Amino acid sequence: MISFSPTEEQQMIVKMVQQFANDEMRKHYRECDESGEIPDRIVNTAWQLGLVSTSIPEEYGGGGGEHSAITGSLIAEELAWGDLSIAMHILCPALVVNSILEMGTDEQKKKYLPAFCGDNYKAATAALIEPKFGFDPYSLSTTASLKDGNYVINGQKCYVPLAADANLLLVYAAENGNTQGFIIEKGTKGLEVGGRESNMGIRALATYELALKNCRVPKENRLGGGGGCDFNRILNCSKVALSAMAVGVAKAAFEYSRDYAKERVAFGEPIAARQAIAFMLAEMAIEIDATRLMSWEAAWKLDRKEEATKETSLVKTYADDMVVMVTDRAVQILGGHGYIREHPVELWLRNGRGFATFDGMAIV
Amino acid sequence: MIDFEPTPEQKEAIEAAHKFAEEMFRPVSRYYDEHEHDSPQQLIDTLWERRREGALSVGLDITAALRTEELCWGDAGLYLCIPGPGLGGAAVFASGTKEQMERFLTRFNEGKPKWGAMAMTEAGCGSDTSAITTTAVRGGDEWVLNGEKIFVTWGKRALEDSDGFVVVWATVDKSAGRAGMKSFVVEAGTPGMRVEKLEKKLGIRASDTATIVFDNCRIPYENILGSPEVRKVDKAGTKGFKGAMATFDATRPIVAAQALGVGRAALDFVKETLEKEGIEIRYGLPRQKLTALERDVMDMEANYKAAKLLTLRSLWMMSQFQANNLEASMAKAKAGLAITKITQKAVEIMGPLGYSRKNLLEKWMRDAKINDLFEGTGQINMLIVARRVLDYSRDQLK
Predict the structure, then answer these.
(1) Which of A257, A278, B341, B353 could serve as a FRET partner for A198 with CA atoms 20 to 30 Å apart?
(2) Are B287 and B223 members of one domain?
(3) Is B272 a catalytic residue?
(4) 3-state secondary structure of B199
(5) Chain A contacts of B288, Cβ < 8 Å?
(6) Both B78 and B91 in a single domain?
(7) Annotated catalytic residue: which of B70, B187, B294, B375?
(8) Which residues pair with A185 in a beta bridge?
(9) Among the three residues B82, B102, B137, which one is the final residue of a domain in this structure?
(10) CA B295, CA B274: separation in Å to the nearest integer?
(11) Using CA atoms, how far apart are residues B244 and B170, in angstroms rounded to an integer?
(12) Is the domain of B230 the same as that of B249?
């Protein structure tokens, strides 16, 4: 039956995450953006909320909860409302955990999942994006070929969050033209973590280039083993997570510019009392809600294990455009003040612009 | 639980409405577009006979919206010919007494086809409904109405072609502003009321749009909907006006659903044509690999989906007895504009196939535009959304 009400449990989780976002993320995001560092305390506090470990089965030490893309979307939106860099950092291990949960063999689950059920944050990451024009996740330049019982991986990756700290890296490579995932442990020969990247936005998130030079990985480390993984579904899950995050960033920018417009007086009245400003805000509100509902619908399809390439790509593209439109308007509504780093809207515009390039950097 | 699966009953309603639209509306769609003031009598009789079937029964809930979308996929103009209580009935239902409901609404269960119309707009006032000049003056046991109403959807059908009625918005006290605004039921055949002219329109030509003149039109005192009392305490917050506006919260999502139907007709036509040409829309590819055509089609589809989900949400909220004024206006503003743009883009993509009257696409583009105009223009709905999100009164945001 058509319904737009999250379950009571989901509402409780949302409330908890909202509080964390408000109390912790919103207090520190600017200094994180300026310094490029996220304090361990914040990351561990978030980790202890159990957002990643909850859906790991009890037999591996997790919470044994149901893994749900809808719940994941709700969490992603709230965290991104707090701060996108910190949100991506906190959820980064899910890139490995959720993929193994969904696609991994029993051996892979047994071997890798318990490490993520402890009290402290464990960095793990995935490497999909490649530093070139025309990047296409379905047609990677990084290759994997089977030789003497090992996969040999060669290629270049970029935008790999937390690569320097991660004990586990899920590297995507083309195997006979099909994208497959390979679990690589830190220190594996031929896996070279490059220097930290510097981007326009998400500056607090440590991302790295990665080089794979004849990197040999045991055959059983192929995600999903002999059967491989359904990469399309992984990418679709990523698109939903990023769409929900775009909604969170846009919502933050909308709220801030709305409140500003009600306080800022020009010509004897708040600028919000003028239709030129008020209509911008109305459109922002409509598009934020529309995108959220679309991301819910796409997540709902994923939870039903249905093919959702159409829904997830429609909402992702829509969200990419929406978040730029909304954050740009937030800057516009603040005028010159929006351009100054004393206000957060310039940060949200910088972060918002990135979504079109973030595929594979977050997952529900 | 967040869920997007229609119930089995809703699926049946969608299927039945789609079948009806395909079989009964599409074949005569072009004819009634080109013969503007012809009445599709046979179709109306069929619609009336089968009005209790799942495909056609009216309502203001999610099921009704899903059904409305399918019917308007068939033809938005013919959809507006479906006999029934309509907006007039909705007003009686929203603010009438039990006695009034019985007196005015029973007719829709018996006899020949009937319509219930709503008359609000005047030559000098559209969106600013509080500026209404039509007057209602009490004379003994009667109200005497004077004034002229325009753009009355199915006004002629309600008042000349059937034993229907029109709900007329008039002021009982001009000095009271909104507080003086009341609604009155005027039945077909009442002396002093006449249908003056039928508009010639850009689209939805099968639907009659009438001007109605009230010239010392006398109606029973009991035909007023809601309280006759004029409260001047709070100029903005009065029952009569609020009654009209509350009706909009229920009807705007249905108008949004009408838009969705037209939009999907255009989208289906584009996609079917591309398929015949062997052109595939490749979802999931990175943007820089997509063709301009693929980008356009995906953009149209995403906007359709956005409008549809906003529409369903606003109706779902109503079903949960939640206030949905903001969400209803969001849905209407988004759907009206999105579908206007989708149909215009579809004509562009289809080129001569879109522009030619051999196909229905050009008609759908003309039909679509009404959804950004009636039941509150796009701008009025944006204004409502803006006031709501800013928590501003009508005086704070004009």
Answers:
(1) A257
(2) no
(3) no
(4) coil
(5) 133-134
(6) no
(7) B375
(8) A168
(9) B82
(10) 14
(11) 12
(12) no
DSSP annotation of B7 reads: P
Check which CATH number belongs to the domain holding B37 and give it: 1.10.540.10
- B386:A7 CB<8 A: no
B 44-73 residues with CB < 8 A to A: 62
Helix, strand or coil, per DSSP, at residue B85: coil
Domain of B55? 8-82
CATH superfamily assigned to domain A231-357: Butyryl-CoA Dehydrogenase, subunit A, domain 3 (1.20.140.10)
B301 interaction partners in chain A (CB closer than 8 Å): 314
Same domain, yes or no: B47 and B151: no
- Fill in the amino acid letter for A346: E
Distance from CA of B288 to the nearest CA of A (A): 6
Contact B308/A at CB under 8 A: no
* Residue A243 near residue A295, CB atoms below 8 Å: yes
Q: How far is B57 from chain A (nearest CA, A)?
A: 20
Same domain, yes or no: B385 and B246: yes
Say yes or no: A313 contacts chain B, CB-CB below 8 A. yes
Q: Which phi and psi angles does B188 have, rounded to 5°?
A: -55, 140
- Check if the beta carbon of residue B64 is closer than 8 Å to that of residue B258: no
The count of residues in chain B is 398
Is A296 within 8 Å of B310 when comparing Cβ atoms?
no
Please tell me whether residues B249 and B361 are part of one structural domain.
yes
CATH topology for A8-116 is Butyryl-Coa Dehydrogenase, subunit A; domain 1 (1.10.540)
Helix/strand/coil (H, E, C) string of chain A? CCECCCCHHHHHHHHHHHHHHHHHHHHHHHHHHHHCCCCHHHHHHHHCCCCCHHHCCHHHCCCCCCCCHHHHHHHHHHHHHHCHHHHHHHHCCHHHHHHHHHHCCHHHHHHHHHHHCCCCCCCEEEECCCCCCCCCCCCCCCEEEEECCEEEEEEEEEEEECCCCCCEEEEEEEECCEEEEEEEECCCCCEEEEEECCCCCCCCCCEEEEEEEEEEEEHHHECCHHHCCCHHHHHHHHHHHHHHHHHHHHHHHHHHHHHHHHHCEECCEEHHHCHHHHHHHHHHHHHHHHHHHHHHHHHHHHHCCCCCHHHHHHHHHHHHHHHHHHHHHHHHHHCHHHHCCCCCHHHHHHHHHHHHHCCCCCCC
Please indicate, yes or no, if residue B162 is contained in any of the structural domains.
yes
- What is the CATH number for B109? 2.40.110.10
Q: Is B318 in the same domain as B263?
A: yes
B3 is a domain residue: no
Residue finishing a domain among B175, B207, B234: B234
Rg of chain A on CA atoms, in Å: 20
pLDDT tens digits in sequence order for chain A, 364 residues long: 999 999 999 999 999 999 999 999 999 999 999 999 999 999 999 999 999 999 999 999 999 999 999 999 999 999 999 999 999 999 999 999 999 999 999 999 999 999 999 999 999 999 999 999 999 999 999 999 999 999 999 999 999 999 999 999 999 999 999 999 999 999 999 999 999 999 999 999 999 999 999 999 999 999 999 999 999 999 999 999 999 999 999 999 999 999 999 999 999 999 999 999 999 999 999 999 999 999 999 999 999 999 999 999 999 999 999 999 999 999 999 999 999 999 999 999 999 999 999 999 999 9
> The tokens of B51 are what?
């009005």
User: In chain B, how many domains are there?
Assistant: 3
Yes or no, beta carbons of A3 and B390 under 8 Å apart: no
**Partner-chain contact A300 B383, CB within 8 Å:** no
The phi, psi pair for A220, rounded to 5°, reads -70, -5
Q: Where does CATH 2.40.110.10 sit in chain A?
A: 124-227
Q: Per the CB < 8 Å rule, is B390 touching A261? A: yes
Domain range A124-227, CATH architecture: Beta Barrel (2.40)
Of A235, A286, A317, the CB nearest to B334: A286
Answer whether B390 sits within 8 Å of A262, measured CB to CB: yes
